[in-house]
Amino acid sequence: MGKLIASINTTPDGFCGHTSVVADDACHQFASDLLRLSGTVLFGRVTYQLFESYWPAAAKNNTTPEPMLAFARSIDAIDKIVFSTTLTEVKWNHTTLLGDIDLEAITKIKKTSGKDLLIFGSPTLVSELTAFGMIDTFYFSIQPLMPGNGKRLFESAGLDKKCNLRLKDAKTFPSGVVVLCYQPVGKTLPGTLKGPNHTGPENNKHVK
């Protein structure tokens, strides 16, 4: 059975915006390594649109430097699912558009796939699935900068129960990026999101 893995960039002051990222060869190689073990990539709308606007063209451009080119071709070829209630179509090849977060579909893929499911970025999606106890492994790439503002990880869907994590691995890149690999010790019970836009399990599946 495959695992659901979340790989997300964050900073020491807790922000996870795409502008606060060191995107060097080591980071692209690390992302490519995760893709090789995965059969499907899951996205929220914002991260999907960021990726779709760049990587398909990069995959077809032979002047794209390695290892960016390897990552571009891998992400272009892999099956992708984007969860969004506002997108009406997707044009990137091998991409399926689903509206609400479909926990049953994700569970079915996990059970029937010999490879992992991987989430890149997509902090709202990661927050939602963390609250439902769906994430098996987290890779937090700690960036060597503090932007002071932006989107915070887990701000859109707070947890009302502590989620204990066990450190499984740590990698340090020459740029100063530190990747921490954690696995939950005890899964959070489904439907435990809290916040102004979340009043119960029926409202916990929406990613715009």
Topology at a glance:
Layout: E1 4-10, H1 25-36, E2 38-44, H2 45-52, H3 55-60, H4 68-77, E3 79-83, E4 95-98, H5 103-112, E5 116-120, H6 123-131, E6 137-142, E7 158-159, E8 165-172, E9 178-184, E10 193-194
Parallel strand pairs: 1-5, 1-6, 2-3, 2-5, 3-4
Antiparallel strand pairs: 6-9, 7-10, 8-9
Radius of gyration: 16 Å
Written as H for each helix and E for each strand, in order along the chain, the element string is EHEHHHEEHEHEEEEE
Low-confidence stretches: 188-204
Strand content: 25-35%
Model description:
By secondary structure, the chain is α/β, with parallel strands linked by helices. Helices cover 26% and strands 25% of the residues. The strands form 2 sheets. It has an 8-stranded mixed sheet with strand order 4-3-2-5-1-6-9-8, with helices on both faces. It has a two-stranded antiparallel ribbon with strand order 7-10. Strand 8 and strand 9 form a beta hairpin.
